[in-house]
Amino acid sequence: MPKNRKPAGKDHWFICTIEFVCPDCGGNSKEMLPTASTNADPHFVAAQIAKLDFSCQICKNPLAQRASPSLTVLSTTLEIIRTSGLQLPEVFDPPKYSN
Ligand SMILES: [Zn+2]
């Protein structure tokens, strides 16, 4: 995704941190996921993120449904995400997972 592309209609940016102890390798998996949403409420975004499937960042095994990762959602700005070195989401948009 070109860095100067302006995401249309997504005014609110968040950095979601997903952490869990992997049931397979026992490692502490930590993933930082920048995301954009039309909804400004971090709790809403966290609820949508929680519906996604996660994989261990260490062994790459998918996390079983029974395991619930720790989610932290922080409001941020697109500029901060750009300067943090995190990859911008290409198609990810939490609202489309609602309902
Ligand atoms: Zn693992």
Structure overview:
The structure is a single chain. This protein is α+β, with helices and mostly antiparallel strands and 99 residues long. A hairpin with a 6-residue loop joins β1 (12-21) and β2. It has helices at residues 42-49, 78-84, and strands spanning 12-21, 28-37, 70-76. The protein contains two helices and three strands. The protein has a domain at 20-74. A three-stranded antiparallel beta sheet has the order 2-1-3. It is globular and about 35 Å long. It binds zinc ion (ZN). Residues 22, 24-25, 27, 56, 58-59, 61 line the site of zinc ion.
Question: Which secondary structure elements does this structure contain, and how are they paired or packed?
Answer:
Elements: E1 12-21, E2 28-37, H1 42-49, E3 70-76, H2 78-84
Antiparallel strand pairs: 1-2, 1-3
Bound molecules: zinc ion.
Zinc ion (ZN) binds at residues 22, 24-25, 27, 56, 58-59, 61.
